[in-house]
Write a structure and sequence with these properties.
By secondary structure, the protein is of the alpha/beta class. The protein has 2 domains: 8-98, Transcription Regulator spoIIAA (2-Layer Sandwich); 125-373, no CATH class. Helices cover 71% and strands 8% of the residues. α2 crosses α3, α5 runs parallel beside α9 and α7 (202-240) packs antiparallel against α9.
Length: 376
Amino acid sequence: MTQTASPQITVMQDASPAVVSVRGDLTLMNVTRFEADLQSLPTGGDLRLDLGGAERLDTAAAWSIAMLRRRLEARGDRLVVDGADEAMASLLDTVDAAIPTPDVIPPEHRTVADRLAELGERVAGGGRYLLALVGYLGLFLSRMAGAITHPRSFRLTALVHHCEEVGVKAVPIVALMAFLIGVVLAFQGASQLQQFGAEVFVVDLIAISILRELGILLTSIIVAGRTASAYTAAIGSMKMREEIDAMRSLGLDPASMLFVPRILALVLMLPILGLIANLMGLIGGGIMAWIELGISPAMFAIRLVEGTSVDHVFIGMVKAPVFALLIGIIGCQAGMQVKSNAESLGRMTSSAVVAAIFAVIVADALFSIFFAQIGM
């Protein structure tokens, strides 16, 4: 096997421009050392590369020379290659021409019309999304009507399973969340009301805040995070594996089989979870009021019954089915939009959680305005 001679590089910095003289073989076997020598050349000014003493030159060394030329040109200097025979010069030209040049994308100058067009597209997209949700709501209601008129087609086993997944397994996190919210409300309320000698009104603060707003709102947000993502992931996975197409081929309706049990389970279980959250929030608030203000549990209960209207419980509970419909429909609709790849599944799952939480908050705001207008 023939050994290739290592190149000898001589740098003459006194000349103008500086001269780099190369002798020996410039091949793949020693291109690493050659490239390291090129990287260590003095910076600043033009450079002349003398290949008169080079015996061999392959594409690897030609690539190193071409990259040296680009580095010099990037800082405003030139590389002049001398002494290369016809074959070397041809190889250098070929390699230099073959190195891809990144496309320079000019900066986009957006006009007011472009921005208005983008805004219009976003508004139109939002409108289409709302129409799609309304369509899925109508699909759910129609399949529910069919299940009522034909009870034998209703999937009771699936409903019980989803009630357990949505409701029973969510009780610990909902109860803990509501308990801590009650503790925080009582502690912060006590700190503020003590300044005015109105500590007893902390009971009203806890009761109204939890029963009317925070209990069902925070419960719905937690359920939206758990359930909307679970519905999207489950239906989206079935869509990726073409199981939904197989169901249609067998004459089974995906809406009746997949949507109705899931959404109905939410409608049934979310009010129960809301009641649990209300109870735990009042317990947490009562314990903190006892510790911080000395309000005994008996006094707390009396003040709660006397100072809190049943209307607050009604207002909180009437929101639950609406929130449940929003969460279930958004989760199922997002699952049906999943394409045949995992990236689409992850994107739609995240989108469903964000959309469900946003929809719950917007609906709660609209409920607050409505009840304020009717004087409740």
